[in-house]
Amino acid sequence: NRQILLASRPKGEPSAENFKLVETPVAPLADGQVLVRHHFLSLDPYMRGRMSDAKSYAAPQPLDQVMIGGTAGEVVESKNPHFKAGDKVVGMGGWQEYAVVDADQRGVLQKVDTTHVPLSAYLGAVGMPGVTGWYGLVKIIAPKAGETVVVSSAAGAVGGAVGQLAKARGCRVVGIAGGPDKCRSVVEELGFDECIDYRQFTDLKAMSGALKAACPDGIDGYFENVGGMLLDAVMLRANAFARIAMCGMIAGYNGEPIPMTLPQLILTNRMKVEGFIVSEHMEAWPEALKELGTLVATGKLKYRETVAQGIANAPEAFFGLLKGKNQGKQLVKLV
Ligand code: NDP
Prior knowledge:
Blueprint: E1 2-6, E2 19-23, E3 33-42, H1 46-51, E4 71-78, E5 88-91, E6 98-102, E7 109-111, H2 128-141, E8 148-152, H3 157-168, E9 172-177, H4 180-188, E10 194-197, H5 204-214, E11 219-224, H6 229-237, E12 238-246, H7 264-268, E13 272-275, H8 285-297, E14 305-309, H9 314-323, E15 329-333
The protein binds NADPH dihydro-nicotinamide-adenine-dinucleotide phosphate (NDP).
């Protein structure tokens, strides 16, 4: 069983020396346990936070242990009456090829139906990223038909779902993403009305000018994945009573300062700004997954995947995710 451990904590950008690849034999199963062969590992921006021991909403990843991570795979052996060999499952198996799971613990392993939804989608559009998008949009922004919703990191796993869910609710949807290829795909494949390539704009005035052109009626909802200048630019175009779902601040995950220079606009625009962590809202997951699962199964929710091959390539793919090399959900294929 090849595994990737956290070897050291990064200062600034993470690098290969922060990880260590090891091979360990799979332990025999005890009663209640299940052996899962991972087919896909999910790579997610939150992992950068876990690599650090700074104060956060979650405890840091311990050193010299298998990196935390969402996984999708197949049961190969079971000493648990609720699982049998061949079951497709998702869990938090970590950066490794196999996991021995104490499957009686509530929620550690979920069986999934791959008849209409591919296994990998349970780590993306019909999994944590999809639910994140659903929660921030539906519960925080709560858009009305005809309103304008802006989404940053629009070509990503979360952002792509947000925009399509907002379109389905009758909104005008404008994405923000890095580079012309991503912007083209966000409009042509995901169906956003427009997408702004933020890399073309180095100053606030130019960025907010681009938003003004794309959002002639102002901005009613903003799904924030990035922070910094993009947030300020949106604030300058926000309508009265606009809502901001604070989902991610990836511009600051390597420790860069991400100043918010216009907080007075929250007051003058009477805005609601709400941060959330999706795993703290488990009550919303069934409703969200029902909508997301139906939309994916019927082909109405499109999603993209960037797939690295083999566990040894997980660190490189993770660095790519933090630099925007991915389009849609970043996965590692393990089988
Ligand atoms: P993505 O698939 O969106 O991948 C990350 C993307 O971030 C990159 O592709 C890149 O896209 C963009 N990015 C990286 N650095 C910068 C930067 N400096 N400025 C602007 N954009 C940057 O990841 P996810 O969809 O998985 O996650 C999106 C966001 O949602 C993240 O911030 C994540 O932390 C957050 N999140 C929050 C959760 C919660 O519970 N609150 C749960 C899950 C995710 P580009 O090329 O467009 O720059």
